[in-house]
Structures are given as C-alpha cells and as structure tokens.
Amino acid sequence: MTTGTNMINVLTRFKAQSGKEKALLELLKSLVQPTRNELGCVKYELHQENEKQGHFIFIKSFVDHAAFEKHQNTGHFKRLKKEMPELIAQEPEIIILSRHA
C-alpha cells in the first residue's frame, strides 16, 4: 500500500471515567481488528499513556480522507459512538496531522 501525500494521520485521545477504564479499553480494543481489515486503513494502533491510567490514544492512518470518512460510517465505529459517552470523562481529543517530512 502506498503512502502518498493524500494520506491522513489521526491521533485520538480518550479519558475514561473513574471506574470505567477497563470497559473503555475493551470497547476501544474491539475496533482494532475490524478497522485494520478496512480497505484504506494503513495503520490503526491503540496505546495507553504510561503516566496516566485510563488515558488511551489511537494512532491511525488512512490512504486518504475518503477512507477515513468511510471508516466513520462502519458499524463498529457507530457502536463506539453509541457506547462511548457513558465511559468517558470528556469528549475525545482528535488531532488531524499532515506529514511534512
């Protein structure tokens, strides 16, 4: 798969409500394999911040914006949007990145 200039890179940070860390982690983990199987997904990794319990970050790359938009319309992403509000302490922080070097 090529990584041209149209590739979109996204960081998404989640903060779990106190006591909901495991439930949020399990929900986020359930997205990993289905998303990696999507046409247009280049990278989809889930990380936990070392110094902050209950803080999770997705590092993801898609071949272009259309692939990213298609991802946001999948059943597993819609399930995340439905189940996430009761598990998070604040709205996720979404950072769209452009590669320069």
From TrEMBL:
Coiled coil: none
Pfam families membership: ABM
Segments forming domain ABM: 8-96
A GO molecular-function descriptor: catalytic activity
Annotated PANTHER family: ABM DOMAIN-CONTAINING PROTEIN, QUINOL MONOOXYGENASE YGIN-RELATED
Name by which UniProt lists this protein: ABM domain-containing protein
Protein species of origin: Shewanella violacea (strain JCM 10179 / CIP 106290 / LMG 19151 / DSS12)
